[in-house]
Amino acid sequence: MNSEGFILNKMKSLLLAPLSSPSSSIPPRIRFSFLLDKCISSSSFIPGVIEDIPSPNTNSVDTNRPSESENSINVLTSQSPISENPVLTQTHVIETLLSYRNDPFSALDYFKWVEKQPGFARGIVYPFCLMLHILVHSGNHYTVARNLLNSYASSNSVPSAIVLVDHFIDCGKRFGFQLNPLVFNYLLNGYVRARRFADAVDCFKAMVSCGVAPWAPIMNNFLSTLAKKNMIDEALNLFNDLILKKTSYDCATVNVMMCACLRRDKVDEAEKYFVEAKVRGMKLDAAIYSTAIRVACMKLEANVACNLLKEMKKMDWVPSEGTFTNLICTCVKQRNLTEALRLKDEMICSGYQISLIVSTSLMKGYCQHGDLNSALELFNEIVEDGLTPTRSLMQSLLKDAVGIETWRRRRSYTRK
């Protein structure tokens, strides 16, 4: 007979005994209370009930918990009930993750299980950093690390980028992991995707100060996004830090910053970036040359712009339609109609159609030179091509025509 059956039979026999038995010196009420206490205390022998297990407390940590050397605790896995270790301290989680240092799958299963437990705060950064080190150290779990960082960056209940970067660096030094630039770049990209630009700026600064080179595509997307969000000063300051720290970047980075300068009408600074890139011997492309031509056009330096166009042609780069348009309009403004017409022919040979903007500029050039007939011929051509002249174009053309006719009459009157 097991202990539970024995206790129940004993309790039954005592309760059925006569209350006035002389052999019983214990009062009946006290005797019944005593029996209940004994039965309850015997519940420690009932299978399935674990004794002395405190419930997890999310608001406090058990500071009196014995150390690992005094009281070894079974390693928790995703299959283990929380009752085996109700107080999930950061120390215990870190030690468990370290035991899976060379087993990323088990470490990830354990970490995901820990995150779901009410006794462990998600905002604790150190275990998260250690999990990242284990994943990237294996060399085969970069996608998992990226997904974790994207989730972290999009959450509002986690510490700032500065805290995470500092902890990640310290965690690597403490446990012998090499710093992998991949983690920093994934984190930066995660902040940009989550539109947390202040954290992205802090992350970028931390990377540069630690000597971690941002990946060019991620960095260029980040700086371009800042410029589009009208955070141009922040973008320029970060790029200047890159130059001071001699951090590597490519011509696409320079092009992004040149375009950012032009959004603030900082034409001279944009030109300086291009010149410095050429002096450094950086490998340039058609995009940055197009931006440089745009800069020269904004400064009304038609000769400089045309020379840059010639350099593009030597490298077999076909200028964009916008590049031709800027050049033609600039030449007209400089009253260089001959060069403007040559560029128009080159534009057509490159496979582009003459736009209304180019036609308007050329008609204005004809009028500047007193050639009203050529202006009217071009006007008829754009109408035949199906283009609809704007009201401002009509007014401008009429004004120029009246001016030319007035000038002719005055000249004729003077000769008489």
TrEMBL record:
InterPro entries tied to this protein: PPR_rpt (IPR002885), TPR-like_helical_dom_sf (IPR011990)
UniProt PPR repeat ranges: 180-214, 250-284, 320-354, 355-389
Keywords, alphabetical: Repeat
One Pfam assignment: PPR
Family: Belongs to the PPR family. P subfamily.
Protein's name in the database: Pentatricopeptide repeat-containing protein
Annotated source species: Abeliophyllum distichum
